[in-house]
Amino acid sequence: MSNTRTRYGLLYSEYEYIPYCRVSFEKFVIAVTCLPLLAFIFCISYSVIFNFESATYTHCQVYNFLPSISAAIGSFSPQREIWQAAISLQALPRIFVAMEYLNHHQTVLKRDNFWLGYLACVLNIVENIALLTLSFFTSSKFYGIHEKAFITFILVSEIYMFLICILQKKYNKIKRHSLKWKKRCLLTNLIFIIIAGYLFMRHNSFCEPYVYSMFAASEYIVVLSNMAFHSTAYLDFQHKDLVIYKHGFALTER
């Protein structure tokens, strides 16, 4: 009887373990990160150039020069469709990365701490689902759903980043460069979430010019630092390739 293996619930024979495609994991992570990054840059730029007055309008009716992320990605076309396409395309690759982190944590964690690896994986996937939800249920049409999805995204992403930093510091000390950048991204993210919250409340309370634009800029940094945190995956899986086989896929040593 032939020897078999399973990975991600897929069963395949070792005799059929022939690669169809091999891609360096660094390029894979860069491609996945660039999808939302380029879409984000396009949506902000296009909104400022072609939808400036509508995108920067608030109930206070004071002058602002930057649109909020919700306005830029959800209120206008083609920005809305481009953002939704980018977030949809990166969803499955991100789940793959989450599963690879789970496999990695299972090799470095002690058996009684396996639950930490599973928790990190679940948080990563929930963050991804929340991002999909807030992208398709826009604030202009589905404010209640969008708001809940946004709050879930922020809370879960913070817990996930914090947990990953703890796990990497405790169980993966050899990759200090990756941990250093993760800490920087986490700290930046936390600081600008606080700043964005303060500016949002100040705008609603005092209706000062430019305050909403500063809130929007803070939002941008929150999103960009989150993307940067996830892009550090290429540091954690350096010298590995994404290999596609007849009955599955996996990361293999280069």
From TrEMBL:
Assigned GO CC terms: endoplasmic reticulum membrane; Golgi membrane
InterPro entries: CWH43_N (IPR019402), PGAP2 (IPR039545)
GO biological process: GPI anchor biosynthetic process
Domain CWH43-like N-terminal per the UniProt entry, residue ranges: 28-239
UniProt KW keywords: Golgi apparatus, GPI-anchor biosynthesis, Membrane, Transmembrane, Transmembrane helix
Subcellular location: Golgi apparatus membrane
Domain of life: Eukaryota
Topology term for the membrane: Multi-pass membrane protein
Chain segments annotated as transmembrane: 28-49, 114-137, 149-166, 186-204, 210-229
One Pfam family cited in the UniProt record for this chain: Frag1
Signal peptide feature range: none
Entry's family note: Belongs to the PGAP2 family.
Protein name: CWH43-like N-terminal domain-containing protein
Native source organism of the sequence: Rhynchophorus ferrugineus (Red palm weevil)
